Amino acid sequence: MRHGRAAKFCECGQSLVVVEPPAPPRTFFILSAFFFGVTVLSARLAEKNGWVYFPLGGLLFASVAFVLGLRSWLWFKRNGGD
Protein backbone atom coordinates (compact mmCIF):
# COMPACT_ATOMS: atom_id res chain seq x y z
CA MET A 1 0.00 0.00 0.00
CA ARG A 2 1.32 3.45 -0.85
CA HIS A 3 1.55 6.08 1.83
CA GLY A 4 -0.16 9.41 1.30
CA ARG A 5 1.32 12.77 2.23
CA ALA A 6 -0.75 12.98 5.41
CA ALA A 7 0.06 9.42 6.58
CA LYS A 8 1.59 9.25 10.04
CA PHE A 9 1.68 5.49 10.54
CA CYS A 10 2.06 2.54 8.21
CA GLU A 11 -0.20 -0.52 8.41
CA CYS A 12 2.85 -2.42 9.64
CA GLY A 13 3.14 -0.02 12.62
CA GLN A 14 6.13 1.98 11.38
CA SER A 15 6.02 5.67 12.24
CA LEU A 16 6.43 7.91 9.22
CA VAL A 17 6.81 11.13 11.24
CA VAL A 18 10.35 12.42 11.54
CA VAL A 19 10.92 14.51 14.67
CA GLU A 20 14.01 16.67 14.55
CA PRO A 21 15.32 18.38 17.67
CA PRO A 22 15.11 22.18 17.73
CA ALA A 23 18.12 24.45 17.82
CA PRO A 24 19.83 24.74 21.21
CA PRO A 25 18.06 27.12 23.62
CA ARG A 26 21.09 29.40 23.91
CA THR A 27 20.73 30.27 20.22
CA PHE A 28 17.24 31.64 20.77
CA PHE A 29 18.19 33.40 24.01
CA ILE A 30 21.14 35.10 22.28
CA LEU A 31 18.82 36.23 19.47
CA SER A 32 16.33 37.51 22.02
CA ALA A 33 19.04 39.51 23.82
CA PHE A 34 20.25 40.92 20.49
CA PHE A 35 16.77 42.04 19.42
CA PHE A 36 16.08 43.51 22.86
CA GLY A 37 19.38 45.40 22.80
CA VAL A 38 18.71 46.82 19.36
CA THR A 39 15.21 47.81 20.46
CA VAL A 40 16.49 49.63 23.55
CA LEU A 41 19.22 51.42 21.60
CA SER A 42 16.85 52.53 18.86
CA ALA A 43 14.29 53.76 21.41
CA ARG A 44 16.96 55.78 23.21
CA LEU A 45 18.18 57.24 19.92
CA ALA A 46 14.63 58.20 18.99
CA GLU A 47 14.05 59.79 22.40
CA LYS A 48 17.32 61.72 22.15
CA ASN A 49 16.33 63.15 18.74
CA GLY A 50 12.76 63.92 19.80
CA TRP A 51 11.08 61.42 17.50
CA VAL A 52 7.90 59.56 18.30
CA TYR A 53 8.81 55.90 18.12
CA PHE A 54 7.18 52.71 19.32
CA PRO A 55 9.48 49.73 18.73
CA LEU A 56 6.74 47.15 18.19
CA GLY A 57 8.78 45.04 15.73
CA GLY A 58 11.78 44.79 18.04
CA LEU A 59 9.61 43.85 21.00
CA LEU A 60 7.81 41.26 18.91
CA PHE A 61 11.04 39.68 17.62
CA ALA A 62 12.61 39.64 21.10
CA SER A 63 9.56 38.03 22.70
CA VAL A 64 9.16 35.41 19.97
CA ALA A 65 12.85 34.47 20.20
CA PHE A 66 12.53 34.21 23.99
CA VAL A 67 9.46 31.97 23.76
CA LEU A 68 11.19 29.76 21.19
CA GLY A 69 14.15 29.50 23.59
CA LEU A 70 11.82 28.39 26.39
CA ARG A 71 10.17 25.88 24.09
CA SER A 72 13.54 24.49 23.00
CA TRP A 73 14.75 24.32 26.61
CA LEU A 74 11.62 22.40 27.65
CA TRP A 75 12.01 20.04 24.67
CA PHE A 76 15.58 19.21 25.68
CA LYS A 77 14.53 18.79 29.34
CA ARG A 78 11.78 16.38 28.34
CA ASN A 79 13.86 14.34 25.90
CA GLY A 80 17.05 14.22 27.97
CA GLY A 81 19.14 16.10 25.42
CA ASP A 82 21.31 19.23 25.60
UniProtKB/TrEMBL annotation:
The chain crosses the membrane at residues 28-46, 52-76. The keyword Transmembrane applies. Keywords: Membrane, Transmembrane, Transmembrane helix. This is DUF4175 domain-containing protein. The lineage of its organism: Bacteria, Pseudomonadati, Verrucomicrobiota, Verrucomicrobiia, Verrucomicrobiales.
